Amino acid sequence: MRIKNYFARVGVFLALVGIYGLSCVNYGITDSATYVGSKACSECHAKEYSNYSKFSKKAHSSASVKIMASDLDSEEVKDCYGCHATGYGKPGGFVSYEETPDLADAGCEVCHGPGSLHIQDGDPELIKRKLDVKDCEVCHNADRVENFNFKPLIFGGAH
């Protein structure tokens, strides 16, 4: 009887650990995926790319950073790249306007993650599909709204 209870408890424990572990998995984001730029997304997602293109030259634009750069030191400019460029500070992400021009603006992969594996395979599980406000608040947060006096279009952009 004791052995039976022991195995039942171990089984329940392992099941709970497995369920918890699966809930922590970040589908679509892997260490091996690389950034490809928004133009690569347009082949299958033409409508979304068209919408993105209408908004990408506004506040998300690298042009905003270039305009403000003369008033900022190099570290402050680098801080801007986190929201105004794709993948800055991450492997395969934006490095400079000369080296990685296709990643110079805030593109699809800022929110959806690096797209190389998704594009290569077509598997929707290899990209972050379901976004919520928390994803947007990485850049569109209260401090930035106050400091830059802008009202973010969290639900108005690419989609």
From TrEMBL:
The keyword Chloroplast does not apply. Pfam families: Cytochrome_C554 (PF13435). The chain crosses the membrane at residues 7-29. It comes from the Bacteria. Residues 40-113 form the Cytochrome c-552/4 domain. InterPro entries: Cyt_c-552/4, Multihaem_cyt_sf. The keyword ATP-binding does not apply. Keywords: Membrane, Transmembrane, Transmembrane helix. Gene3D superfamilies: Flavocytochrome C3, Chain A. This is Cytochrome c554 and c-prime.
